[in-house]
Design a protein that fits this description.
Nucleoside Triphosphate Pyrophosphohydrolase; alpha+beta; 25% helix; 125 residues; two-stranded antiparallel sheet
């Protein structure tokens, strides 16, 4: 998804994310934020992709993956989002927030472990 607002027009794309509600487990936060930002209801098990820490803000982002619902078409379901779509992984690598790039490596390893080594994860100092 791409964040809305004139100040974000050149901002990188990213995964749906947000702070957990009190006593909310991270998996439920991921489902809720995906629904709130893209209109997609994700049911079934989630794959934990771990977390990344943003270099500048030090914000920690936890990520999960799941198959898209049958026939799903993401949409801008929140004022926070001006574009929501499924993106092929090669293009995603070019447009995703740099601090979230490691999540794509983890997703790719999960989806195709038989392909062996993927590009190394970006790390923060």
């Amino acid at each position: 998804m791409h964040p809305a607002g004139n100040y974000n027009r050149r901002a990188p794309w990213g995964i749906p994310k947000g702070a957990p509600d009190p006593d909310e487990v991270l998996e439920e936060t991921a489902r809720r934020e995906t629904l709130e930002e893209t209109g997609l209801h994700v049911a079934g098990p989630l794959v934990d992709l771990g977390h990344v820490d943003y270099t500048r803000s030090k914000k920690r982002v936890h990520a999960f993956a799941a198959p898209a619902p049958e026939g799903a078409l993401p949409r801008c379901a929140s004022w926070e989002v001006d574009k929501a779509e499924f993106i092929e992984i090669t293009r995603a690598r070019r447009i995703i927030h740099p601090d979230q790039a490691a999540l794509l490596d983890r997703l790719q390893r999960h989806l195709a472990p038989e392909l062996g080594e993927v590009q190394p994860e970006k790390t923060t100092a």
